TrEMBL record, chain A:
InterPro entries: 2Fe-2S_ferredoxin-like_sf (IPR036010), 2Fe-2S_ferredoxin-type (IPR001041), 2Fe2S_fd_BS (IPR006058), Beta-grasp_dom_sf (IPR012675), FAD-bd_FR_type (IPR017927), FNR_nucleotide-bd (IPR039261), MRET (IPR050415), Riboflavin_synthase-like_b-brl (IPR017938). Residues 240-325 form the 2Fe-2S ferredoxin-type domain. Keywords: 2Fe-2S, Flavoprotein, Iron, Iron-sulfur, Metal-binding, Oxidoreductase. It comes from the Bacteria. Its cofactor is FAD. GO terms for molecular function: 2 iron, 2 sulfur cluster binding; metal ion binding; oxidoreductase activity. Residues 13-115 form the FAD-binding FR-type domain. This is Ferredoxin-NADP reductase. The keyword Mitochondrion does not apply. It comes from Geodermatophilus amargosae.
TrEMBL record, chain B:
Belongs to the cytochrome P450 family. Coiled coil: none annotated. This is Cytochrome P450. It comes from Geodermatophilus amargosae. The keyword Metal-binding applies.
Length: 325, 415
């Protein structure tokens, strides 16, 4: 096979917006979106368990787990469940969003990383299969011992069954209308060392997992709650102002440029390196205003603290940000 | 050196794939003493020869232009590290030590150790060191200037400061710290061919490796520090307890010589560019930019190799699967296709995007540590020193991977 090395990916704007290049129905109420950079260049690297923030054309921001192939550097895939109660997130994705549309992107970030182990037990509930799918592939690649228990309402509502069926007996598919509630205790077996248990799904499943793993060695169980709620402030598409506290200068950042570029235009140089929110070089202290974090570095607590931002990609939720520059 | 554009058949006993392509070929040995003394003319010739060049002496491919080096650095799928980032191909040759879990690993195995170190050495984690390192730098500069204003900057300053602050930050004991530089020097030589520089280090390999391994054990590390943080991550299961000592080893290998030579580079740059020193003195907040500009200009880490995971097309050449490719970070950092007036050390320039710390998933995880060391030392010097000039002939230190100084005699006038 001959591959051509992609040209150097342009910085900034290219990673901040992605184009929908595929939209496929995977199961009843579940579809996948394939996303690529408008230039077709490399996207930010990711690891299994990662999610991205998608800023939809209607202004809402939603988080989705990546469920594609990390060895494909130019495409992200996310799985989206149509929430019956949706107020514009998943309903918008299912009904309005079309191939060719452009979405804003933050991350990928990973709060649910796959740590090294000899044995993995995966438990998915419904759309919670999405972050586990790349984990399953990775466990297989590493030659680890692994099994997956996958529950859903009905067989027809459960995505990716075709791909998973290739793994034979390692995968237990358990639609609730056929087999009832998941037999967690039977699947997990007795507490033992050397095992990592990963689970993603609705809150009742995760609570049951916590209870089922109570006697296991600490740090055995890792969970990610599938957040269905349509929350979160809408991303702003209007320009915002950045005030530089040390000089009193104010710069306007319009939707088409990054804070880093806007600062550069007024001669304020902030050292940068990757310009994709992954290396940490351009970290800048925030004195006032709420940053709209688009980097792949800060964890949830650090984001909530709001005291610093990576100006190569992150933006502002408020009309004005004050930076320690 | 001769560069010829010939129709070369590039096949070795180790690869089944043979490819016939027009690839510029050079007989230069980048690891010869002549080139190590001054690699700049070779960098220019290799850049001009083409996007990729076959180095016939070692039968490896090489890239010296910014775009190609950058593209290879970020493309971990096509250019792997797990077959070694030196000339030796781990697919066929036994590594001289257990491979690094970071530098010499590919995803997925690279993921967990990288995630742990990125947090332990991240800008936020380093905040607690700012004050202490600044004070340490000021104390050292005072000490040195009190002893005299004319001295050799390498033994007096640039190799002293990192060795004073970094081993403490990792949390290793006081004893045997003099082993760190020779160990690192050998590790960086070992990325090259097995030439005289590697032979020079060979007699002490077992002893030095043993000492380093002993420092990485949990019992040997202070209860607070990067080392303890790494072991704590293994308690949480983020890495396994078997991985922890090797992750600590990465710090001890990659974190000492590199910063010593990085600081030497910036000091030499200022000693030879008095106008730039004056500019730094008028605005010490430029010290961050100054250090990165020096890392671009001098590239303390000159080269790393990758291995093609598939037949990779670079320009008109197909590099066959399994072949080694040498990336000249230093040549990329002075590529006139990317940088205006690349040979100038210039604080007005924005050095952002240089590849002196690499790029992509293996980009230097210690870069914020290196920058903090440099910022601390430069700020202290800018406050106390009005002028820096060379006070005698400088002497290079040759290493297969590092661009280094043995001696930089300087004269400083206190402010
Ligand atoms: C001026 C000083 C330094 C320079 C020029 C430098 C340069 C580099 C370069 C070019 C790479 C990329 C290797 C590759 O792509 O294969 C790298 C990786 C690395 N550096 Fe540094 N480095 C410096 C300081 C440090 C320090 C202070 C530490 C430790 C605290 C450190 C630890 C590492 C480690 C562990 C890696 C491997 C990362 C990975 O593969 O994921 N370096 N460094
Ligand atoms: S430049 Fe790398 S995070 Fe902004």
């Amino acid at each position: 096979m001959t591959v051509t090395t992609p040209a150097v990916a342009p910085a900034g704007a290219d990673v901040a917006t992605l184009r929908v290049v595929g939209k496929q129905v995977q199961a009843e109420g579940v579809l996948t979106l394939d996303l690529a950079a408008p230039s077709g260049g490399r996207l930010r690297d990711w690891t299994p368990g990662s999610h991205v923030d998608l800023v939809l054309p209607n202004g809402l921001t939603r988080q989705y787990s990546l469920c594609g192939d990390r060895f494909d550097p130019t495409t992200y895939r996310v799985g989206v469940l149509l929430e019956p109660e949706s107020r514009g997130g998943s309903a918008y994705v299912h009904r309005e969003l079309a191939v060719g549309d452009v979405v804003g992107i933050g991350g990928p970030r990973n709060n649910f990383p796959l740590v090294p182990a000899d044995t993995y037990l995966f438990v998915a509930g419904g759309i919670g299969i999405t972050p586990l799918l790349p984990m399953v592939r990775q466990a297989e690649m590493l030659g680890a011992d692994w099994r997956l228990l996958y529950g859903g309402r009905t067989r027809r509502s459960m995505a990716f069954l075709d791909e998973l069926s290739a793994h034979g007996e390692r995968v237990l598919v358990r639609p609730q209308d056929e087999t009832g509630l998941l037999d967690l205790a039977g699947f997990l077996g007795g507490p033992r060392p050397g095992v990592r248990v990963y689970s993603c799904g609705p809150a009742p499943l995760l609570a049951a997992m916590e209870a089922a793993c109570a006697e296991w060695p600490p740090y055995t169980l890792r969970t990610e709650r599938f957040v269905a709620a349509d929350g979160g402030a809408p991303a702003r598409t209007a320009p915002f102002e950045v005030e530089l506290a040390r000089t009193g200068t104010t710069v306007t950042v319009d939707p088409g440029s990054t804070v880093l570029e806007a600062l550069d235009r007024v001669g304020v140089e902030v050292l940068s390196s990757c310009r994709r929110g992954v290396c940490g070089t351009c970290e800048t202290t925030v004195l006032a205003g709420r940053p709209d974090h688009r980097d792949a570095l800060l964890d949830d607590d650090e984001r909530a603290a709001g005291d610093c931002m990576y100006v190569c990609v992150s933006r502002s939720l408020d009309d004005r940000l004050v930076l320690d520059l | 050196m001769t560069v010829t554009t010939a129709t070369a058949t590039t096949a070795t006993a180790t690869t089944a794939t043979a490819t016939t392509a027009t690839v510029p070929t050079s007989d230069v040995d980048p690891f010869s003493h002549e080139v190590l003394e001054d690699p700049l003319p070779m960098h220019a010739e290799l850049r001009d020869a083409g996007p990729v060049v076959l180095l016939s002496r070692h039968d490896v491919f090489a890239m010296a232009r910014y775009d190609e080096v950058h593209a290879a650095l970020v493309d971990w799928q096509g250019f792997q590290s797990a077959a070694g980032v030196g000339m030796s191909n781990f697919r066929y040759e036994e590594p001289w030590r257990p491979p690094s879990l970071l530098l010499e690993a590919d995803p997925p195995r690279h993921d967990a150790p990288r995630r742990v170190l990125q947090k332990v050495l991240g800008p936020r984690a380093l905040r607690r060191l700012h004050e202490r390192w600044r004070a340490d730098a000021e104390a050292l500069v005072d000490e040195v200037l009190a002893a005299g204003t004319e001295f050799d900057a390498v033994p007096a300053l640039t190799s002293v400061f990192p060795l004073r602050v970094f081993p403490d930050a990792v949390g290793i004991g006081q004893e045997g710290r003099e082993n760190l530089l020779p160990y690192g020097d050998h590790a960086f030589n070992a990325f090259g061919p097995s030439n005289d520089l590697v032979a020079k280090g060979a007699p002490r390999v077992a002893e030095l490796s043993g000492w380093v391994a002993a420092q990485c054990r949990r019992e040997a590390l202070a209860p607070e520090g990067f080392g303890a943080d790494i072991w704590a991550a293994s308690d949480r299961g983020d890495i396994t307890p078997e991985m922890a000592p090797l992750v600590v080893r990465s710090l001890l290998t990659a974190g000492v010589d590199t910063t010593v030579h990085g600081l030497s580079a910036v000091l030499y740059a200022f000693a030879t560019h008095p106008d730039q020193w004056a500019r730094l003195r008028s605005d010490p907040s430029l010290s961050r930019v100054a250090f990165d500009e020096a890392v671009r200009w001098e590239s303390p880490v000159q080269t790393f190799f990758r291995t093609a995971t598939t037949d990779v097309r670079i320009g008109d050449t197909v590099v066959p699967e399994g072949r080694k490719i040498l990336m000249f970070l230093a040549a990329a950092n002075r590529d006139p296709r990317r940088w205006a007036d690349p040979d100038a050390f210039d604080l007005f320039r924005d050095p952002s995007g240089h590849v002196g710390f690499g790029m992509g998933i293996h980009q230097c995880v210690g870069q914020h540590v290196a920058r903090l060391e440099a910022e601390s030392l430069l700020t202290a010097l800018a406050r106390r020193v009005r002028t820096i000039e060379l006070a005698g002939p400088t002497v290079r230190h040759h290493n297969n991977t590092l661009r280094a100084w043995e001696s930089i005699p300087v004269r400083m006038t206190p402010a």
